[in-house]
Design brief:
Elements lengths: L2 E3 L7 H14 L1 H4 L2 H5 L2 E8 L5 E3 L3 H7 L9 E11 L2 E10 L2 E13 L2 E11 L6
Parallel strand pairs: 1-4, 2-7
Antiparallel strand pairs: 2-3, 4-5, 5-6, 6-7
């Protein structure tokens, strides 16, 4: 289960769909299933990870799945919000805690088909736990 707090909903259906897709990729069930996670990643997926590493599509879903315990500590998400940059293109911003490590995240999602979104870029920047 993904813990959610202080999210901002969206009146824009495209932003709402991208937010739902982002939450799915953060769920332990999705993260533990390489095929399921892979369906949310665009073939040109690229990430600058909070670890400082640069990550591409090839092998990402398998690496995440092998390191995910579906019964482990849930991911905490705070202040998820998004903006539509263009038709079928959404940017999301939020703060996340994964295994005690906090990071600010930005992801870019593009609509691959009606109701189907794929992440093509993610950026994670380490941060301290929120103080509020």
């Amino acid at each position: 289960m993904t813990t959610i707090s202080a999210d901002q909903g969206s009146d824009d259906p495209q932003v709402a769909e991208a937010i739902a897709a982002e939450y799915e990729t953060l769920s332990p069930d999705c993260r533990a299933d390489a095929d399921r996670l892979r369906s949310f990643l665009a073939p040109d997926f690229h990430e600058f990870g909070a670890s400082g590493g640069e990550i591409v599509f090839e092998g990402t879903a398998e690496r995440v799945a092998s390191g995910t315990d579906p019964e482990g500590e849930p991911i905490t998400v705070e202040r998820m919000r998004g903006v539509r940059l263009a038709e079928g293109l959404v940017m999301l911003k939020y703060t996340v805690n994964i295994d005690g490590r906090w990071s600010h995240r930005t992801s870019l999602w593009r609509r691959a088909a009606p109701g189907r979104w794929q992440m093509f870029h993610n950026q994670g920047t380490p941060t301290s736990p929120p103080t509020d």
